[in-house]
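Q: Please design a sequence for this.
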């Protein structure tokens, strides 16, 4: 089935459940995260003003939680195993943020990736979510980045490195093969510091 058709059906199902009197909480239990973005009024307002063809997408991100009870050496071992798997992905991430209880995996856009409306952006999130679901990484989960401020407003139109039909693939997101995945740690009082590359 064509992805766009599949996603549209999922969105329509979410909206239909609300029209039948299902509460938003009940709908959330049966809807995917990207579909929820289109049925929550406050999300809709953000989507309408942010993903309108005037801003460059900032990033797509996922999270892998770790047990707080694990020792530093155990967490480091988990990180190294995660990096091995990330390096083998067809769409390699740019960096991993090493937080207290999780590793945040980030894919930055290549060039200027721009969507023209909230439906196109939501379809991109569907692509990203499906990619994560099919990845060999246990426990990786989608992070909602839709509410983050867009990185750059388009000031001058130029066709160079500008794409108005982004998909989640290695042409549009992530790092190139041969480039290291940065590991960045939050150090209180200093900020985020690059501590390693893999």
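A: Design:
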């Amino acid at each position: 089935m064509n992805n766009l058709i599949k996603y549209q059906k999922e969105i329509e199902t979410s909206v239909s459940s609300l029209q039948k009197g299902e509460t938003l909480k009940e709908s959330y239990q049966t809807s995917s995260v990207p579909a929820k973005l289109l049925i929550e009024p406050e999300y809709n307002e953000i989507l309408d003003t942010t993903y309108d063809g005037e801003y460059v997408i900032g990033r797509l991100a996922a999270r892998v939680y770790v047990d707080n009870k694990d020792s530093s050496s155990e967490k480091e071992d988990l990180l190294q195993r995660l990096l091995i798997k990330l390096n083998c992905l067809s769409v390699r991430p740019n960096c991993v943020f090493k937080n207290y209880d999780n590793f945040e995996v980030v894919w930055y856009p290549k060039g200027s990736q721009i969507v023209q409306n909230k439906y196109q952006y939501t379809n991109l999130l569907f692509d990203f979510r499906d990619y994560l679901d099919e990845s060999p990484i246990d426990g990786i989960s989608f992070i909602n980045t839709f509410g983050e401020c867009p990185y750059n407003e388009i000031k001058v139109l130029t066709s160079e490195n500008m794409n108005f039909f982004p998909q989640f693939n290695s042409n549009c997101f992530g790092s190139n093969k041969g480039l290291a995945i940065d590991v960045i740690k939050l150090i209180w009082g200093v900020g985020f510091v690059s501590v390693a590359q893999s």
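Q: Thanks. Anything notable?
A: The CA atoms of residues 14 and 20 lie 10 Å apart. The chain has a mean pLDDT of 75.
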